[in-house]
Write a structure and sequence with these properties.
heterodimer; A: alpha/beta; Rossmann fold; 4-stranded parallel sheet; 5 helices; about 40% helix; about 15% strand; disordered N terminus; B: alpha/beta; 3 domains; 5-stranded parallel sheet; two-stranded antiparallel sheet; 13 helices; 9 strands; globular
């Protein structure tokens, strides 16, 4: 399985290639609009991700991320407004602190911390959304499947 | 009237829960009056074969303390479940895995290797390890099989009530015994199955310390500062698991000027005590207005003041947390070899 993933270079699934499951949390005010812009602009990107819209990136409880990994997500991406742009003044700052600490925790659990990524995507950054998804998908393909076995 | 029958057993625990049950002062006389103790290895002489001979449902209530670490723990838990009407998960180890649950940070092989060959006092050049079966001249010997992972009691059997705490406090034990006594003597209804015999609120709710702003500037270990006994621990920079821990213990550690370490487990509806504490702690760092100017490395440096998030936030709950145990990336970056 992991060897297959290593040799895969294309972002989307080729026949028989392993395709990661990605979960993307988007904040309602910036990143979801950014994802929408990427969509209406018909920017091409891998399709193996699911978006969950939250009112703010700070709504993403560490429990959500841990549950995502426990349920088999191979990577979790949290997208929020740029610093100083948060609709709720400081939600994205809290997210940033939590994700930093959560990455340390995931590493202690034995996960590669790169399976969790925080990125700022504004409503006008459809291109950045596309690039972030492509890059993250590639990173997870390199890392291989979620190591949690059931 | 007929007496009720109770049993107490220990899995992977320290014995503190057994002592806690004895520690209920003169109420223990009430217990002896109300109940026959049919099985309790630490206190009475009944043997496992006596339990095996009992009809199903013979025991009114079993208090099981300690986590499930080996085949013997699991076997006795299943046996007692069959023979009991009620099973109470007694203490943090049975409820959440407790301190023994931190062994989920390592594999069985790593633990065995360390304990039998690598400790400073190990003298085992032949690398002799315990085996579950051994043919000795006197006959076949068997010891229980140790599992690769620590489980909670409710991972292996159906549990009726949970009584967390390390150990459960005298008040909680008395409260529960009072409920059982009322049920037996007057037919009062029992609490709904799955109830946690403790408060529904967080520890902060019953903590007597004064809180003003809930802000942390810098994290300290308890020995590094003189802790003010009247002021909130977190505001003084000492990590206290109060915000994510269930109340019911009477904030005894805080009375003793020590921070809460979370033995009462998560509050109702929270799946992951550690995640909940991580979220709370990250939120109360006080940075001021300049946070937008900090970069990712500054934030990481700030958060790295928490030296051991897993050990701090999951001291008692690793086996019942969402991830449960340490995992291993198939493509290890540091490439340690696996046998």
């Amino acid at each position: 399985m992991s060897n297959q993933a290593q040799t895969t270079s294309a972002p989307a699934a080729e026949a028989g290639a392993w395709e990661p499951n990605l979960l993307v949390f988007c904040c309602n005010w910036c990143s979801y609009a950014g994802a929408d812009l990427a969509g209406v602009s018909r920017l091409q990107m891998p399709t193996n991700f699911r978006v969950i819209r939250t009112m703010c990136s700070a709504r993403v409880d560490p429990e959500f991320v841990l549950r995502a990994f426990a349920k088999g997500a191979d990577g979790v991406l949290v997208l929020g407004c740029h610093p100083a742009d948060c609709h709720y003044i400081g939600g994205n700052y809290r997210t940033r602190r939590r994700i930093a600490l959560l990455r340390v925790l995931l590493e202690q659990y034995g996960f590669n911390p790169d399976r969790l990524k925080l990125e700022w995507v504004s409503a006008s950054e459809g291109l950045k959304f596309q690039a972030t998804i492509k890059e993250f998908n590639q990173k997870i393909i390199e890392l291989g499947p979620n190591p949690l076995e059931d | 009237m007929a007496k009720i029958r109770i049993a107490q057993y220990w899995g992977a625990g320290c014995g503190g829960c057994d002592v806690a049950l004895l520690d209920i002062d003169e109420k223990i006389l009430g217990v002896a009056e109300m109940a026959d103790i049919v099985f309790w290895p630490i206190a009475v002489d009944a043997k496992l074969k006596d339990v095996e001979a009992m009809p199903d449902g013979y025991i009114t209530a079993t208090f099981f303390n300690g986590a499930i670490r080996n085949s013997e723990n699991e076997h006795v838990a299943k046996l007692l479940r069959k023979k009991s009407q009620l099973v109470v998960s007694f203490g943090s180890c049975a409820c959440f895995g407790g301190i023994p649950g931190l062994a989920n940070m390592y594999t069985l092989k790593e633990i065995m290797d360390y304990v039998y060959t690598k400790t400073p006092s190990s003298d085992n050049v032949e690398r002799v390890f315990p085996t579950p079966h051994w043919k000795a001249p006197e006959g076949d010997l068997e010891i229980p099989v140790m599992y690769d992972q620590v489980f909670t009691l409710d991972h292996v059997i159906d549990v009726d009530y949970y009584m967390p705490g390390c150990p459960p406090t005298t008040n909680l034990i008395n409260e529960f015994l009072g409920i059982v006594e009322k049920h037996v003597k007057e037919g009062a209804p029992l609490p709904p199955k799955g109830s946690v015999i403790a408060s529904q609120k967080t520890l902060c709710d019953e903590c007597p310390r004064t809180r003003t702003v809930k802000k942390v500037d810098k994290i300290f270990m308890p020995y590094e500062i003189d802790i003010d006994p009247k002021k909130c621990m977190l505001e003084q920079g000492v990590i206290c698991l109060g915000p994510s821990t269930r109340a019911g213990c009477g904030a005894k550690c805080l009375e003793g000027n020590q921070p809460c370490r979370g033995c009462m487990g998560p509050t109702a509806d929270v799946l992951d005590q550690g995640g909940s504490m991580l979220s709370a702690l990250a939120s109360i760092f006080s940075i001021g207005n300049g946070e937008g100017l900090l970069n990712e490395d500054d934030i990481m440096e700030l958060m790295l003041q928490v030296k051991d998030p897993l050990g701090t936030f999951y001291s008692y709950t690793m086996p019942s947390s969402i991830i449960k145990r340490k995992v291993k990336e198939r493509k290890a970056t540091t490439a340690p070899k696996e046998a």
